[in-house]
């Protein structure tokens, strides 16, 4: 727990490295690949694209650019989850993914800033929960010690 507060940057660097490696393994919105599923959910949910922005997919070796989507063939510059979507993951603007721009997509908004905030928040919550558990255990030890030393039933 103390490590989290004394060296948070190491945790963020590790998380970013994992996120970057996962991004490089992204295939497509319809893939059963774990990394593809994760990014296909994260990007529309957080309204972002890639880690820094959509250009992260320029050198993504596994990204499948030629896809069939809504009965149309596309040669994608960015993944379909970079399009703006509603809560049910339906693309809001019919021009996307044919054309990606600032109005119909999130290609200029990276996910890392938002993911870092989420990791920081939940990391702090985990530390607090851990401290509560430790305090509860200390109270149990103190209570047990009092009972054993006083001879209370």
From TrEMBL:
Keywords attached to this Swiss-Prot or TrEMBL record, sorted alphabetically, are: Membrane, Transmembrane, Transmembrane helix
**Entry GO terms, CC:** membrane
InterPro entries the UniProt entry points to:
Tetraspanin_EC2_sf (IPR008952)
The yes or no answer to whether the keyword Transmembrane is present is yes
> Which regions span the lipid bilayer?
121-148
Which protein is depicted? Tetraspanin
Record organism: Schistosoma haematobium (Blood fluke)
Taxonomic path: Eukaryota, Metazoa, Spiralia, Lophotrochozoa, Platyhelminthes
């Amino acid at each position: 727990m103390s490590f989290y507060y004394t060296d948070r940057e190491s945790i963020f660097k590790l998380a970013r490295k994992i996120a970057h490696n996962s991004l490089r393994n992204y295939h497509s919105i319809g893939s059963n690949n774990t990394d593809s599923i994760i990014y296909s959910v994260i990007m529309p949910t957080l309204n972002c694209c890639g880690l820094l922005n959509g250009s992260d997919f320029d050198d993504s070796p596994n990204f499948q650019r030629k896809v069939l989507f809504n009965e149309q063939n596309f040669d994608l510059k960015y993944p379909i989850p970079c399009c703006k979507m509603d809560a049910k993951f339906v693309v809001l603007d019919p021009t996307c993914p044919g054309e990606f721009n600032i109005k119909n997509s999130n290609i200029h908004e990276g996910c890392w800033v938002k993911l870092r905030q989420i990791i920081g928040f939940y990391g702090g919550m985990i530390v607090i929960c851990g401290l509560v558990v430790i305090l509860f255990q200390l109270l149990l030890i103190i209570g047990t010690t009092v009972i054993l030393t006083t001879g209370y039933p």
